[in-house]
Each structure stands twice: as structure tokens, then as C-alpha cells.
Amino acid sequence: MKTGSRIVAAFASAILCAYTGLAQPAGAPAGQQAQTRGGAAQVRSPEITPQGTVTFRLSAPNATSVLVRNTSGGFLDWPGGNETAMTKGDNGVWSATIGPLKPEYYVYVFVVDGVQTLDPQNIFHVRDGQRYGNALRIAGEFSRGYALNEVPHGTVHLVWYPSPALKLTRRLYVYTPPGYETGTARYPVFYLLHGGGGDEDAWTTLGRAPEIMDNLIAQGKAKPMIVVMTNENSNQIAAPSVVAPLPTSGPGNPMQGTAML
Amino acid sequence: MKTGSRIVAAFASAILCAYTGLAQPAGAPAGQQAQTRGGAAQVRSPEITPQGTVTFRLSAPNATSVLVRNTSGGFLDWPGGNETAMTKGDNGVWSATIGPLKPEYYVYVFVVDGVQTLDPQNIFHVRDGQRYGNALRIAGEFSRGYALNEVPHGTVHLVWYPSPALKLTRRLYVYTPPGYETGTARYPVFYLLHGGGGDEDAWTTLGRAPEIMDNLIAQGKAKPMIVVMTNENSNQIAAPSVVAPLPTSGPGNPMQGTAML
Predict the structure, then answer these.
(1) With a cut of 0.90, is the ipTM above it?
(2) Which residue range(s) make up the domain with B75?
């Protein structure tokens, strides 16, 4: 057990060591910055009003240009344009207010001096293929459809299976509906395929299929069913965020150097 | 099905629309930049040699200061220090080379003009509590212990359960060993608790417990077992990257405005 024990101990230390860096200022008024013990300025971002107006903020005293970019896709345009310049306050905090936005689920990034950056105050990251962005949800009847609501939840299983055709062991996700584990009922199976750039993880973490299924089943709008979400890319054994694609993806693939395999 | 169908259609469009943005230059030599159709400069980062030397690169022609920071934790210090200034090339690409590093699993970020940024060329993101970083693995005997190797893999289940004590429905992760689904054997259960700042997701995505268990079981160093990974934070129904913590986390919590609940 030596190697395994060392590894477990190392990660336990990592998780514990991280704690002191996690303290958040309690009670800091919205939009004002506070100093953490580490000295980093903390601001609230995004701040969403009940009317759907969104204020983005970034502490960047040394930056010369900051903008916020809507990367949700063209069918979710922001009123006033999909790039908004942020303005610098006396305290070094850049901000911009947009909207009101209609109730939906949006993805955005910041661009700091030309470099695309995630919002350090927003823990909701989503991956769309090889790109990351921050998510925000404007509450409302429509966006409740893919929110985690107080309804029975299904289970998501991350399963490895042998593919004789590709001679690979590959990963897929399976959603089983509420009650699956405790009953003996048989369910229809829905194979939910991703689009270009997606993978077996896309429908669950970007597409929110488990929340959508939970909600539709709870409302009686869908029969309880099993949903199988596969990876359609023959050079991937799993999402590229987990394992680097096989070399057939081309010598220029920037991820080869960081293969987790 | 109207609402559900609209949502499914919207996300299908999102996933498809993303495709044109995903093209990577094929065959671009390491370290040289190429133009994508979108005009963004692409570089290779991190580039890891067989000897464990790592070169980080970031295209940031307009930045005035870029550094790379080791956020792995103190037990994984980098030789030469945990912050290394990157130098700007004529092409606007900043770079720094460190190491050789010992075979391990490291986490790092860039700091661009004072703003912490993830490496846009490295798709491996890891979350440590409320902080994100990029992961890189130096291949070697030790780090094989938590790599995804060609051994039988267990299944990870994302399960919601009722907590009578907290009067909440909460999420936990369960690892079942290879062969669990197809057999009738009973297994011991290992409750693997996270440290401060962690949650039910920490041991799987940051701590790589499923890969560690797969490897130990394959080597005969651990008995096949079920591993249950819970969330020890009584104000969380799930990891804060999935659902914002309940208001008991304090009025200053920067995530309240983006609640996915």
C-alpha cells in the first residue's frame, strides 16, 4: 500500500492546505471590495437584480483594458451587444452593467488586456468543447426548466465500457430516473447525442440534461427514462478535459503535452 | 413537452454553434503561434519534455506583466520558486521554462497584469474549493498511481439522498469497483471524507480517488471496495460549483447572486 498511501496522504494534505486560502469576507456590501488575509481584493460578480440586470466586476488595478464578452452563442444575444467595455473605478475595480436579460442561462468571459479570463468571483465554470466560460442564470419561469429544483433527482453514472469496434475502453454517462435503484420497473432508453465539439460530459455539465429530465419527469411532461450520453469522437476515450485525445487528433493538438493518460 | 423541447433545442444549438470556434491549427510546431480563423493566436502550453522540464506560454501582446504561479500546495514546491516571471517574445507570446519537476501532479495559474488567469491552451482545469487552476502531470512511476491507466475501471455515481438531520436533499459520490454491476459480491464500504474547503466532488475530480482505487485494486494493493464521498458542509446540498451554498454561509458570500438552485 506504500505508493497508494503516499498518494492519499499527499492529496489529503493538498485539500487541507487549501483551506486558509478559501476564507471569504463575510458581510462585505455588494460592489465594495474587501481585503482577504492574502491581500487580494474581493468584489461581488456577477450581481444580478430581481429585474435581470447584471453587474460584472473585476479587481484589476494594473490592467489597461477590460471587457465582458457573451459567449452563450448567437441565439442568446445581449441587448446592447455581446461585448461591453468595463470602466475602471478609483479603487481599481472595473465594472459594467448590462440588461435586463431575459430568464436564461448565459455564459461569459472577461478579456483583460487582450487575454481571455474567467471571473474569479464566479465559481460556476462551464466547458463548451475546448473552451471554458462562467455561467450565470437569470431566474424565471423558462430558466426553471434547467435549474436544480426541489423535485426528485435521478442519478448520473460515469461508466467505462469496452468498444470492440474502436478497440478502446471508453466512457459514457447514464442518467437513471428517480426510483430506478429501488424498483424493478423497466424504462425506455433515450440515446442523447452531442453535437460537434461535444463529448460524453457535454449534455450533463453544459447541457444540464439531468436537471431537465428531473423537471420534465416531475411535471409529467416526460416518461421516466434512462438517458445514455456517449462520446461520438472516435479519437477520444473520454472528454478531453479528463484524458488527452489520442494522437490521431493531429500533431498540432495543444493538449498532447499534458496527457493525463 | 413545449418548454422541455425548447430547452433541448436551445442547448443542441449551443453545442453545435460552438463547433466553428473549436478548430485548432493542425501541425503547428511547438512554441510557434498560428492564427485560427477567429484570429486568436494559438501557442502550445504547457510543453513537457520527457525529462520533466515544463515550458508555459501565453499570447498576450498587450500585457505588461505575466507570471506563472504554482498553486499545488507547499508540499509540491517548484525548484527555483513557486512564482516565475514570464518573458515577452517579439511575437507577443510570453514564456517561462521551469524544472525539471519530479513526477507528480501540479496545479498552476497565470497572473496577467495582476489578474489571476487560467492557461487558455490547457483544457485540464481542477477546482480546489472555490479556486480553479490548471493541472499538469509529469509522467513517472509515482504519478502513475493517480493516472488513468489501462486497468479495469470502476463506476462513479452522482447520487442525491435525503438527509433527515439537515432536512435537505443532498448529493454524494459513490465509487463502485470493477465488476460491481455484473456480480453479486458484497464489498466493504470506505467513507472517504474531504478536508476543509472540500465537498463531495473533491476526492473525485481534484483527488483522483477513482483512478487511485482502480490502480490499487488492479495491483492487488487494495481489496475491491465501495467508496462513499460525502459533502461535510452543512450549508451545502452539493458542491458550490453546482449549487450556491445556502444563505447560512453569510451575507458576503460572493456566489449568492449566481445561485443555480
Answers:
(1) no
(2) 30-146
